[in-house]
Each structure stands twice: as structure tokens, then as C-alpha cells.
């Protein structure tokens, strides 16, 4: 293993041993003793560009009781040959991976420090001896992370997280659209992320982009990516759309020029929040009880950005919603998001986003939908053009946005 300050970073699955896992868990589970580790192997080879996600179970004892922890280790080898989006430089992809490490190790503790305990935690007394209960020091929008670090000398990194699949979370198969209830859950998760990051900015008295200067995507990065990859991918997507709907000549002509209207949202004067910026179907894991969605987690945090909150929302709708949800349930979902945002912000802070009305949110969503359209066409290889997309685009065109 490669050692950093205190806990070593494994080079491979063979390094995931009981003594190491015990070190990783001690901070959150003091007194735990790990006696055995069962490594199940890679469950998402190549996920995260240069990473393998290794599933393993840790068996041990805590407070005199036997315990079993289902975990994953996301191992990144920065020397691995590039296999995805080769147009991006090696340095850019390395910085994407280290951004996720810093998000878990730097940002999450700070977000937790300003979090308002949810009503679920308030109403459910925590038994310190019961490891089956949700930990108080966790956030509802992402998996619990026990350890995240990078070793600059060996160019490897690791994130040890709870195994969401073992808890019943899954990604919808076949790039299916999210239904109303699934969209509600996801919008609520984004509201917590956005609200807590805004609370953090108010408490710190430092603009969020300055406080989170470790993030991968800054204005210079965006310009490089737009030039080298995103615009080309977008225009290819427009051609694919035109092949499916050749009779939509006016709409296609408008779409061909749309990318020229896109400006970096980092330059937008509106309040910025910490945004996932890649919230589409492959990064949304949902838990069900008898086919009813009950919980959601967002994964893959390499492309974090500080931008207005509508960036995530337009991407959420354009990349995950079908026509019925977009047309008939959009207002209800945005209202739910707004309610959760206000709930997360609390009542004892400076005005900030607390003065942001639901009507302003709806208006900004319509005005910013160009970003969602752009992101959808970039992903047309995974989210093919269909009649629902056509209807959504026609409605946005009616708003005057396209």
C-alpha cells in the first residue's frame, strides 16, 4: 500500500485487509474490531474514467455484538490508460477524479457542520449500539463515505463508501425516464445539496467559488471542454436528432445555433450553489418498496460546479423526464424542490436564497432550459432522441428559449 498521513491507500483489491478496513471505519464507528473481509470484486470496472469499484463485506464486533458492513472501495489509478472521452487531457481527467476525493474529504464535513437535522433524525432516537440505524453524520443526497484520500507520490486514490446496491438502491435499467415520484425524490436531494452549500457560504462569509476552489470545473476548464469536446458532441447529437425527425427543419436549424447562446454560468450574477452538474439517469440510484420509490442517492461527483441552482434542475428535467412529467408535473416538482430548499436553508440565516420565490424559480428554469437542452444532446448516445424529447423541445421553443 501507499501511505499518506495516517491511513494507507490500497493499490489493488488485494490490499483491502481487515486491519486497513478497521482503520477506515474507526472514526465513524469507534471501538469496531474487524476480523475478516470478503472481497467480492469489481462491480463497475471503468466507472469514473480511471476507477474500479470494488465491493466487499467487512465482518467484526462492536460493543460486544457481531456486525457486518457492506462497503465499496472506489480505487483510482492515475497511470491507467485513458479509455473514455480521449479528447480530454490526462491532466483534466486526473483533476476530475481528485475533485471527487476532495468533495468527500473537504466539502462534506463542512456541509455536515451547517446541516439542520432532518425530522427523521429528530424523531428517531439514535442507539449508539445499533449499527443498523442510519448514521446521524450522513447526508440524504449521497452515499455515506468513510474515507477519501489521494496519494500524490504513487498517483492512486480511494473512496470507501457504503454499498448502495446492497441496501437495495439501483439505477433504472435501459435509460428509462424517471416518473413523477422518482423526480420528486431527486429534486429533493438536489435541494438539500444546494441549500446546505448556500448555508455554508453565508456562515463562512466567503463566496462559494472561492471557498471551493479545489473544484475541477472553473471558467477556463469549461471553455477548454466546450472547445475540445462538448460542442462537437452537441452538434453530432443534433445530426442524430435530425435523422430521427427530418421533418422538423425549423427546430433543427434553431438547435444548430443554440450552442452559440450558451455562456458559462460561473459568470452569472445570481447566487451560486454547489451543483452536481451531471445529474442524469446513470448517476441517480433509487430504492424501492414494492415498486414505490422511497429513497434516492446521487453518485459520481467528479464534475462539481458552483453555478445557479437551475443548472442542475434543467439537466434533471431534460435528461431524465419524459413528456408527461415535463409537461404535466413540472410545476409540482419545482414546488417540491423549492419547499425542500427553504426547509434546508432554515429560518435563522441571512436572507440570501430565502427571498427566492417559487415564481422566480419557475421563470429562471424556463430561461435556463438551454443548458438542459445542450446537456441532453451531448448525451444523445446514451439517451436517444424519441417523441417525448421532440414534444419537450417544442414546448421550450414556444417559451421563446430556442
Automatic annotation (TrEMBL):
Q: Where does this protein come from, organism-wise? A: Branchiostoma belcheri (Amphioxus)
CHK kinase-like domain ranges (all copies): 159-347
User: Per the record, a Pfam family?
Assistant: EcKL
Q: Which SMART domains match?
A: CHK
Could you tell me what this protein is called?
Uncharacterized protein LOC109474180
Instruction: Provide the organism lineage as a comma list.
Output: Eukaryota, Metazoa, Chordata, Cephalochordata, Leptocardii
Q: Which domain of life is it from?
A: Eukaryota
Amino acid at each position: 500500500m501507499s501511505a499518506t498521513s495516517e491511513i494507507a491507500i490500497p493499490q489493488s483489491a488485494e490490499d483491502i485487509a481487515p486491519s486497513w478496513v478497521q482503520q477506515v471505519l474507526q472514526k465513524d464507528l469507534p471501538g469496531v474490531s474487524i476480523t475478516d473481509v470478503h472481497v467480492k470484486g469489481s462491480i463497475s470496472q471503468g466507472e469514473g474514467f480511471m476507477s474500479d469499484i470494488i465491493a466487499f463485506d467487512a465482518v467484526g464486533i462492536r460493543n460486544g455484538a457481531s456486525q457486518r458492513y457492506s462497503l465499496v472501495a472506489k480505487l483510482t489509478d492515475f497511470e491507467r490508460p485513458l479509455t473514455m472521452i480521449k479528447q480530454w487531457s490526462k491532466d483534466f481527467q486526473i483533476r476530475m477524479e481528485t475533485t471527487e476525493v476532495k468533495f468527500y474529504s473537504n466539502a462534506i464535513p463542512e456541509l455536515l457542520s451547517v446541516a439542520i437535522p432532518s425530522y427523521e433524525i429528530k424523531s428517531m432516537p439514535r442507539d449508539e449500539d445499533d449499527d443498523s440505524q442510519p448514521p446521524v453524520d450522513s447526508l440524504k443526497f449521497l452515499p455515506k463515505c468513510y474515507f477519501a484520500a489521494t496519494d500524490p507520490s504513487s498517483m492512486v486514490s480511494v473512496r470507501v463508501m457504503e454499498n448502495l446496491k446492497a441496501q437495495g438502491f439501483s439505477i433504472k435499467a435501459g435509460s428509462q425516464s424517471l416518473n413523477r415520484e422518482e423526480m420528486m425524490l431527486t429534486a429533493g436531494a438536489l435541494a438539500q445539496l444546494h441549500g446546505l452549500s448556500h448555508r455554508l457560504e453565508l456562515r463562512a462569509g466567503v463566496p462559494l467559488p472561492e471557498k471551493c476552489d479545489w473544484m475541477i470545473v472553473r471558467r477556463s476548464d469549461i471553455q477548454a471542454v466546450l472547445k475540445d469536446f462538448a460542442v462537437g458532441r452537441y452538434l453530432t447529437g443534433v445530426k442524430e436528432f435530425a435523422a430521427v425527425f427530418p421533418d422538423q427543419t425549423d427546430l433543427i436549424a434553431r438547435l444548430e445555433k443554440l450552442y452559440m447562446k450558451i455562456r458559462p454560468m460561473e459568470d452569472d450574477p445570481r447566487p451560486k450553489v454547489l451543483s452536481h452538474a451531471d445529474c442524469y439517469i446513470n448517476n441517480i440510484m433509487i430504492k424501492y418498496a414494492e415498486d414505490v420509490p422511497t429513497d434516492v442517492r446521487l453518485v459520481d461527483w467528479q464534475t462539481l460546479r458552483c453555478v445557479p441552482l437551475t443548472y442542475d434542475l434543467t439537466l434533471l428535467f431534460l435528461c431524465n423526464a419524459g413528456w408527461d412529467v415535463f409537461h404535466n408535473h413540472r410545476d409540482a416538482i419545482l414546488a417540491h424542490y423549492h419547499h425542500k430548499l427553504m426547509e434546508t436553508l432554515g429560518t435563522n440565516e441571512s436572507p440570501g436564497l430565502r427571498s427566492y420565490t417559487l415564481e422566480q424559480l419557475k421563470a429562471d428554469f424556463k430561461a435556463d432550459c438551454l443548458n438542459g437542452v445542450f446537456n441532453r444532446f451531448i448525451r444523445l448516445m446514451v439517451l436517444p432522441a424519441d417523441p417525448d424529447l421532440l414534444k419537450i423541445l417544442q414546448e421550450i421553443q414556444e417559451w421563446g428559449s430556442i
